[in-house]
Design goal:
Blueprint: H1 10-34, E1 38-43, E2 49-54, H2 58-68, H3 70-82, H4 88-102, H5 107-117, H6 138-174, E3 183-186, E4 189-192
Antiparallel strand pairs: 1-2, 3-4
Helix pairs in contact: 1-2, 1-3, 1-4, 1-5, 1-6, 3-4, 4-6, 5-6
Length: about 190
């Protein structure tokens, strides 16, 4: 059980901190990837198919939230594993950058597919009506921009963490070392220095 708890928890804490923007980016990316409107169709009196669009089902929403947890949990796991080895902070930062960039690999494709699945836009109201608050594809564009922005924040925070770790390491290397544990030798008996 002792082996499961690392001596230094700094990388685990950093992974938890960096997992926050990764989670929100993941939430938006997964929404673009799998969200779809619930479509109800029936045959009207004139024989034509009538179609109405409704908000996604609860099952889809639950699936989105659960899948959105995967990238941040992988990052925390990487931080926990790295905490057992040297250079844990640096490995955690690299894992955060890779994790964040992985969310952007298919982002444009997800954006296009989400737009196709919502024929009337995210608000499910046709653009030509006065009640429409979002044009078709507008929400998807904003969501993809948010994912990209959060990925950039994650990369920036990771670079800042590496810079701080390097600065502290260099500063610690230049600090004068006290010899004798802070004790002064005066005659025969050791006394502590004030």
């Amino acid at each position: 059980m002792r082996r499961l708890i690392p001596d230094s928890k700094a990388s685990l804490g950093l992974a938890g901190f960096l997992a926050l923007p990764v989670f929100f980016a993941s939430l938006m990316a997964v929404t673009l990837a799998i969200e779809k409107a619930r479509v109800v169709e029936w045959t009207g009196h004139d024989g034509h198919i009538v179609r109405t669009w409704h908000t996604p089902t609860g099952a889809i929403e639950a699936k989105i939230w659960l899948l959105a947890l995967v990238p941040p949990l992988l990052l925390v796991l990487a931080g926990w594993i790295a905490a057992h080895f040297p250079y844990a902070i640096y490995v955690t930062c690299i894992a955060a950058v890779v994790d964040a960039l992985a969310l952007t690999v298919r982002l444009h494709r997800w954006q296009v597919h989400h737009t196709a699945r919502f024929a009337y836009g995210e608000d499910l109201i046709a653009d030509q009506t006065t009640s429409s608050s979002l044009a078709r594809g507008e929400w998807e564009h904003d969501a993809a921009h948010t994912v990209t922005s959060l990925v950039h924040y994650t990369i920036g925070l990771s670079i800042a963490a590496v810079a701080i770790a390097l600065f502290l390491k260099l500063r610690h290397g230049r600090r004068p070392v006290l010899r004798g544990g802070g004790l002064q030798q005066t005659g025969g008996a050791p006394t502590t220095s004030a």
